[in-house]
Design brief:
241 residues, alpha+beta, Immunoglobulin-like, seven-stranded mixed β-sheet, three-stranded antiparallel β-sheet, 14 strands, Aminopeptidase_N-like_N_sf, aminopeptidase, transmembrane helix, hydrolase
Amino acid sequence: MFLSGYWLQVVLSWAVVAFATATVVVAVQKAQLERDLRDVQDKIDVFEEWNGEGRTRIKREDTTDYRLPTNLVPTHYELYWHPDLETGNFTGQQRISIKVVEATNQIILHSYLLDITSVYVLNREVEKFELEEERQFLIITLTEELPVDASITLGIIFGGQMKDKLVGLYSSTYLNEAGATRTISTTKFEPTYARQAFPCFDEPAMKATFAITVVHPSGSYHAVSNMQQTVSSSKQTIKMG
């Protein structure tokens, strides 16, 4: 009887300890949950406004529009690239044919992590151009308004770097059959990385045709595209379109 009573007390003691531990754990979890809820509540972007009848919770809207205006439509790009595999930098220039859908004195397109050297519009005067980093916009302001149905040609000279990145126009390496490391230049544009390789209307709805010229070292280097090669010069300049 003594042994049975002893073990009964032990079992009851364990049960009490387990219950107390569970209670403490639940209390701690509840306290943590309450802190988390308060933290979330503090971070919710809402404010209270008195409307005369009671308090109404109103969500504060983000008024920043990250989409491009639809007043211009690109139709064709003439793009020239010169990636320097030794330095990891690249230079480029392009002409974009654009159709004016709505009258405007601004041309807005995407550009990110690019150095814009020069901007011009054929037969038009550019007042200024500026880069807006938050929306990754290149905003070009003209001295006069572009009329509806006008066709314009936008020219841009730019540069950038290919090192330490895996999107846009970037450099990569591989081992050839002899075990030597070779450097190459390649691209990744989807979903929104074309703007890191050249200024463009980087939205799916703004499709256009392209003619691309690539300068690369002679010898074992080749330019490869998902379109056919149209011209190849003795200076190893490849045009694809």
